[in-house]
C-alpha cells in the first residue's frame, strides 16, 4: 500500500496502463488494417510492421538512453521529457484519421435502364449468392462482388471467361470479356506517408522508455523498488495487455459491412467500411493517448508542487562519520591487535 500511496508513481503507472491498452490493441489489428485499408498482401503488411517497429524501437531506445545519460537527466527532467514526447506522439496519431484509401466500388452486376424504368440483372440466370463475397476484377476495370455477379460462366485457370456483365470497349483485341480474382487496382498514395509518420511516432515512443523507467524507479523508496517494479508489470498486464484485443475486436467488428456465413453460423468479416474502420480504430487509439498524456501532466503538476522533490528520498547522501581521528586510529589499532591474536 505504501507504493500505491506515492502519487507520482501511481499516476505514471495508471497512464502507462492506458498507453499499453491502446498500443497493444492497435498492433494486434494492424496487419488486418494495412491489408484492408491499403489493399496490401499479407506478407507485405507483416514485413512493413516488422521493419518499422524494429528500426524505430531499436533506434529510439538507443537515442533515449544516450541523451538521458549524456545530459544526466533528473527524474523531474525525465517526467518533463515524457510529457513532451507523448504530446507530440498524440498529435501525430491524428494523421491516422485521414491517411487511408477510399472505399472501393463493388459492382453487383445490376444495370439500370432509365427508359424502361426497370432494373435488369445481367446474371439473373446464375442465381448468385449475395452472401459469398469473392471480389473479382473485370477487364473493364470494375470490381465485381464475385465471378458470378460478373456473369462469368467459365473458369480458365486463374481467369474467368464468358462474363456477360463485363462491358468491353468496342475496339479491343480481347475477344471474350475476362476477369481475375481480387480487387482492381486502386489509386491510393497515402501508404508511404502513413509508414513515415508511424515510424517517427514509434521512434518518439521508444525514446521515452528509459525516462519512464527512471521515473517509476526513482519515485519510490529504495526498499520499495522491487515491489514497485513487480506491481508496475502486473498492472499494465492486467489493465493493458489482457483487455486490449477484446476492446479493439469489438471496435473493428462494428465497421463490418458483410459477414461470411458457414455451418457454425456467422464467420469472419468479408467487407469493411474503410472510412469507419480508420476513424474508429484510430479514435480508440487517440483516446488512450490523450488519457495517458493527462495522467502524465497531472503527475508533473503534483511533482512540481511537492515541498521536496518526489525523488529526494533516493538522493540522500550516505552519512559521514563524525568519529574523531584519534578515536579512529585507536579503533584501527585495537582491531589489528585482535586480528593478530586470532591468527596466533
TrEMBL record:
One of its GO terms (biological process) is sodium-independent organic anion transport. The keyword RNA-binding does not apply. Residues 116-164 form the Kazal-like domain. GO terms for cellular component: basolateral plasma membrane. The chain crosses the membrane at residues 46-67, 79-99, 191-217, 229-248, 281-303. This is Kazal-like domain-containing protein. One of its GO terms (molecular function) is sodium-independent organic anion transmembrane transporter activity. The lineage of its organism: Eukaryota, Metazoa, Spiralia, Lophotrochozoa, Mollusca. Keywords: Cell membrane, Disulfide bond, Membrane, Transmembrane, Transmembrane helix. It comes from Pomacea canaliculata (Golden apple snail). It holds the Pfam family Kazal_2. It is found in: Cell membrane. It is a multi-pass membrane protein. SUPFAM superfamilies: Kazal-type serine protease inhibitors (SSF100895), MFS general substrate transporter (SSF103473). Belongs to the organo anion transporter (TC 2.A.60) family.
Amino acid at each position: 500500500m505504501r507504493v500505491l500511496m506515492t502519487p507520482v508513481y501511481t499516476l505514471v503507472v495508471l497512464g502507462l496502463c492506458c498507453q499499453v491498452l491502446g498500443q497493444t490493441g492497435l498492433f494486434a489489428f494492424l496487419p488486418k488494417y494495412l491489408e484492408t485499408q491499403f489493399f496490401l498482401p499479407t506478407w507485405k503488411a507483416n514485413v512493413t510492421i516488422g521493419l518499422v517497429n524494429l528500426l524505430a524501437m531499436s533506434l529510439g531506445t538507443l537515442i533515449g538512453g544516450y541523451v538521458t545519460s549524456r545530459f544526466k537527466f533528473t527524474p523531474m527532467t525525465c517526467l518533463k521529457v515524457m510529457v513532451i514526447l507523448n504530446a507530440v506522439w498524440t498529435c501525430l496519431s491524428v494523421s491516422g484519421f485521414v491517411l487511408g484509401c477510399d472505399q472501393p466500388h463493388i459492382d453487383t452486376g445490376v444495370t439500370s435502364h432509365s427508359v424502361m424504368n426497370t432494373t435488369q440483372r445481367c446474371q439473373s440466370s446464375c442465381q448468385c449468392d449475395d452472401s459469398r463475397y469473392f471480389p473479382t476484377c473485370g477487364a473493364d476495370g470494375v470490381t465485381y462482388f464475385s465471378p458470378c455477379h460478373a456473369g462469368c460462366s467459365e473458369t480458365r485457370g486463374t481467369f474467368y471467361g464468358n462474363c456477360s456483365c463485363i462491358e468491353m470497349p468496342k475496339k479491343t483485341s480481347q475477344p471474350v470479356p475476362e476477369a481475375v480474382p481480387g480487387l482492381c487496382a486502386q489509386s491510393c498514395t497515402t501508404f508511404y506517408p502513413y509508414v513515415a509518420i508511424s515510424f517517427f511516432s514509434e521512434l518518439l515512443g521508444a525514446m521515452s522508455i528509459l525516462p519512464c523507467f527512471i521515473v517509476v524507479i526513482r519515485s519510490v523508496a529504495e526498499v520499495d523498488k522491487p515491489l514497485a517494479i513487480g506491481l508496475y508489470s502486473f498492472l499494465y498486464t492486467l489493465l493493458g495487455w489482457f483487455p486490449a484485443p477484446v476492446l479493439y475486436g469489438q471496435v473493428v467488428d462494428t465497421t463490418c459491412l458483410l459477414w461470411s456465413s458457414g455451418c457454425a453460423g456467422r464467420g469472419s468479416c468479408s467487407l469493411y467500411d474503410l472510412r469507419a474502420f480508420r476513424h474508429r480504430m484510430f479514435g480508440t487509439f487517440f483516446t488512450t493517448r490523450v488519457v495517458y498524456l493527462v495522467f502524465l501532466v497531472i503527475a508533473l503538476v503534483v511533482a512540481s508542487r511537492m515541498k521536496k522533490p518526489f525523488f529526494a528520498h533516493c538522493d540522500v547522501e550516505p552519512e559521514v562519520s563524525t568519529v574523531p581521528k584519534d578515536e579512529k586510529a585507536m579503533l584501527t589499532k585495537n582491531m589489528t591487535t585482535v586480528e593478530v591474536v586470532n591468527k596466533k
